[in-house]
Amino acid sequence: MDKLLIRGGRQLQGEVLISGAKNAALPELCATLLTADPVTLLNVPRLQDVSTMLKLIRNMGVQIERRDDGSVLANAGGLTNPEAPYELVKTMRASVLALGPLLARFGEATVSLPGGCAIGSRPVDQHIKGLQAMGAEIVVEHGYMIAKLPKGWTRLKGARIATDMVTVTGTENFLMAAALAEGETILENAAQEPEIPDLAEMLIKMGAKIEGHGTSRIRIQGVEKLHGCTHQVVADRIETGTFLCAVAATGGDVVLKHGRADHLDAVVDKLRDAGATVEAIDGGIRVKSQGRLKAQSFRTTEYPGFPTDMQAQFMALNAISHGPSKVTETIFENRFMHVNELVRLGAHIQIDGKVSVIEGVPKLSGATVMATDLRASASLVIAGLVADGETVVDRIYHLDRGYDQMEAKLRGIGADIERIK
Ligand SMILES: CC(=O)N[C@H]1[C@@H](OP(=O)(O)OP(=O)(O)OC[C@H]2O[C@@H](n3ccc(=O)[nH]c3=O)[C@H](O)[C@@H]2O)O[C@H](CO)[C@@H](O)[C@@H]1O
Ligand SMILES: C=C(OP(=O)(O)O)C(=O)O
């Protein structure tokens, strides 16, 4: 199992190229299932979840060409097997995004229930309820969601869907299903994360009629058929935020090319309050930081609030900043798995239910720590970059699931980090 060996204490300087967003590329690869025409996605990140998604749709009969320039050409014209088996779904929850498009285009889908994961139970009841409101008949049997249209129907029917909570992949499933449904669908309480408007813009290029994406109320007028398109995946705001926190923690001066400050307002505000300089520049973001920053309290919420996917990385920064801070996780019930590992590196953190109480310490000391989930891994890497001596981060397959060559990018800006096979 691969590990990362980090020798801490180096400032970061230079330029990093931010990749396309994992959480936009995954639904957009599923959106290629909506048409028999070829679709080209540009700026697709090279990470494990994307490879898993490509395997999943290839297994359905989609022709895939992955090119060295980061583009993926997908042709679902010959799709014969509208199924997402457990073996693939169990390694990537985002496989549930196949449900909406398969049902919309083929009138049937069999998708394994994703099950829980390290950060929480993560049910898909809202996905099922929303698609049922559009007329789908869905039974859950032997661990699979088996979905089909009622007898005599050829398309889903538009509906008003008001979810119990804001759900990102739920909103994406409904958008894709509604694009090919008969009549109008209105999504109330829709997620507004930048990956949603990015998906909506891709669907519009394919011929979909969508309004209101990027707000909490999206209207979709279904069309009979969608066609091919070329679409560039939006820059990864969580990768961007991770590098911002890394530079804020180590000190230095780094340009994040293609990074979008306008997709990270809540994180950027906190970094500025902490004392880092973060400026939007032409084609990216520049971050500068010197000395110990001031710890910042925050609570995670839906976009445009502070993203849960940035909680662990910012907590690593708080751990070595001046003063006390409180971090409240409101989205997932078990997303503090990094805390005990940060404590092993010398951090002072106590968990009280949904709140972590952190007392900043002047330094951390390197040790062997274990990654437990994707963003927890990133927080341990940040901690390792500032800790005295050597830190080994074990189980980095979690990190590889969602970051495109993180250690090579960090090495490129001066970090002493290597992968041990
Ligand atoms: C591939 C992808 O884009 N993943 C992101 C997506 O996950 P994902 O789309 O799975 O997360 P959701 O937005 O759906 O989850 C939000 C909350 O709603 C709950 N819920 C959701 C659906 C449902 O049917 N029932 C239910 O109870 C979840 O358990 C969670 O507590 O948004 C999360 C919240 O920003 C991010 O952390 C993930 O990185
Ligand atoms: C939790 C995440 O992803 P997923 O929903 O794919 O598990 C994440 O990207 O931080």
Characterize the structure shown:
The protein has 421 residues and is α/β, with parallel strands linked by helices. The protein has two domains: 3-19 and 235-420, Enolpyruvate transferase domain (UDP-n-acetylglucosamine1-carboxyvinyl-transferase, Chain, Alpha-beta prism), CATH 3.65.10; 22-232, Alpha-beta prism (UDP-n-acetylglucosamine1-carboxyvinyl-transferase, Chain), CATH 3.65.10. Helix content is 32%, strand content 25%. It has 14 helices and 24 strands. The strands form six sheets. The chain has a four-stranded mixed beta sheet with strand order 22-23-1-24, with helices on one face. A hairpin with a 2-residue loop joins β8 and β9. It starts with a strand and ends with a strand. Uridine-diphosphate-N-acetylglucosamine binds at residues 23, 26, 93-94, 120, 122-127, 165, 167-170, 308-309, 331-332. The site of phosphoenolpyruvate has 7 residues, from α12. Its main location: cytoplasm. Pathway: Cell wall biogenesis; peptidoglycan biosynthesis. UDP-N-acetyl-alpha-D-glucosamine binds at residues 93, 122-126, 309, 331. This is UDP-N-acetylglucosamine 1-carboxyvinyltransferase. Pfam families: EPSP_synthase.
